[in-house]
Amino acid sequence: MNFPFFVARRIRQPYQATFSATVARVGTVSIALGVAVGIVAVSVLLGYKHTIYQKIFLFGSHIQVNKISLNQSLEESALPLHTPAYDDWKNVPNVRHRQAVAHKPCILKTPNELQGALLKGVGRDYDWAFLKQYMVAGRTIAFSDSGYSNDIILSKRIANSLKLAVGQSVILYFVQDPPRARKLRVVGLYETHVEEFDSRLILGDLALLQRLNNWGADSVGAYEYFVTDFDQLPATAQQIDAQLDTGARVQTITQNPLFRPLFDWLSLLDTNTVVLLVLVLFVACFNIVSVLLVMVMERTPMVGLFKTLGSPNAQIRRIFWYVGLQLAVRGLLIGNAVGLGLCWLQQQFKLIPLDPISYYMDTVPIWFDWRLIVLLNVGVFVLVALILFIPTVIVGRIQPVQALVFKK
After folding, report:
1. Any idea what DSSP says for residue 353?
2. Strand partners for 138
3. C-alpha dist (Å) from residue 393 to 282, 289, 345, 397
4. DSSP element (H, E) containing 140
5. pLDDT digits (tens, 9 = 90+) for 203-212
6. Could you read off the pLDDT of 105-156 as tens digits, one per residue?
7. What is residue 20's predicted lDDT score, i.e. its pLDDT?
């Protein structure tokens, strides 16, 4: 029989009427609160990052290949479509999808309104999975077997500004030599709440841009790649770069000046979350140490009796260490139940709204990363287990004679 564990269980049972009962509850609540706050903070942060990443990748892609050019405008130089980097993309590990696109600035004009925008031309290889999550009306582009499609997709913000609805037509003017205009039909509306996209990006047929730029069907503006593991992005970009000719360049999403501020901002959120977790865990550990000190002082006569009967200090320390671990385990269970429960409620019912103008989304997002949640629980348990050795040191300073007198 494990004597320290047996005594620890006996100590935990009758203490409800003592002062240490209240202190022990405080310690349990502090552990539970720390774990719950940690789970909520991590889940919200990961949900926020996941949502922002999805919206960035909606129009940005993980890796982009462009033609090297001294042109500083939004106009792109023609890039050959059939190259090893484009045709043999399946041979590059970690690449999930690739697509050919082109970009061209334009001006949208209705009888009463005018607005500048950036038209992104996409083809049949475009991955619509991301965009469909943010479509609020209409459908995607229906490509034509001959010529180009007149379909375009606007953001809800641009449509409201121009007073357009799905099914209506709008004239797009392209500033070039000679200037050109096309009457296109609005077939869908999207809304991401990201101003960089909603205020200027529209989607159209890649064949239209090829016609406007006097390109052939084998010329595009850029290749876009999507990876499976974002952490391996630099290595994947190097492998794609090795397949390119000297006239092309590779740029990752983190190197793009348009999106770099967003990634820097998300990095600051990581730092803030770490600081919050450290402070919460510090308070929890301080409380559990205080609880154990109170329990040791309250059980001083028992410590003296055990020492008189020949129990070594290490054995008595383990008794109180087991008591502290029992409190910690109970706090972990309660904390997980509260933290996961709150996150589940928010994920299912969207109880806490957000201002989409400031936060790029209309509700607090939740993303469960079970690996991090398990690591958080293990980390808290190990940290508390190590911290609990500190208050047990006082056991070695208790003299049996003084302890028995104290009892009297």
Report:
1. B
2. 188
3. 20, 11, 43, 8
4. none
5. 999 999 999 9
6. 999 999 989 999 999 999 999 999 989 999 999 999 999 988 899 999 999 9
7. 66
Nearest to 37 by CA among 331, 407, 347: 331
Give yes or no for a contact between 234 and 252, defined as CB atoms under 8 angstroms apart. yes
Per-state percent for the chain, helix, strand, coil, to nearest 5: 55, 20, 25
Q: Which residues contact 176 (CB under 8 A, 6 or more apart)?
A: 212
Question: Residue 39: its pLDDT value, please?
Answer: 94
Q: Is 130 exposed, middle or buried (0-12, 13-18, 19+ CB in 10 A)?
A: middle
Amino acid at position 74, single letter: L
10 Å CB burial of residue 53 (0-12, 13-18, 19+) is: middle
Give the ranges where 13-78 is alpha helix by DSSP (H): 19-60
Q: How far apart are CA 294 and CA 291, in angstroms?
A: 5
Distance CA 30, CA 34 (A): 6
> Quick check: bond before 178 cis, omega within 30?
yes
Cα(16)–Cα(12) distance, integer angstroms: 8
The backbone torsions φ and ψ at residue 149, rounded to the nearest 5 degrees and listed phi first, read -85, 145
Q: Whose CA is closest to 136, among 117, 153, 113, 121?
A: 153
Question: Which residues have CB under 8 Å from 26's CB, separation 6+?
Answer: 287, 291
Cα–Cα distance measured from residue 95 to residue 62, given in angstroms and rounded to the nearest whole number:
10
Of 407, 384, 325, 294, the C-alpha closest to 35 is: 384
CA distance 18 to 12: 11
Q: 136 CB contacts (<8 Å, ≥6 apart)? A: 156, 189, 190, 191
Neighbouring C-beta atoms of residue 81, cutoff 10 Å: 17
Q: What is the CA radius of gyration of the chain?
A: 32
What would the DSSP string read from start to end of 254-267? TT-TTTHHHHHHHH
DSSP-derived pairing of the beta strands 201-205 and 114-122:
parallel
CB burial of residue 369 (10 Å; 0-12, 13-18, 19+): middle
Other C-beta atoms lying within 10 Å of the C-beta of residue 113: 13
Q: Give the C-alpha separation, 340 to 256, whole Å.
A: 36
Is-contact 117 108, C-beta < 8 A? yes
Question: Would the pLDDT of 15 be above 60?
Answer: no
Give the C-alpha separation, 318 to 191, whole Å: 59
Pairing mode, strands 180-190 and 151-155: parallel
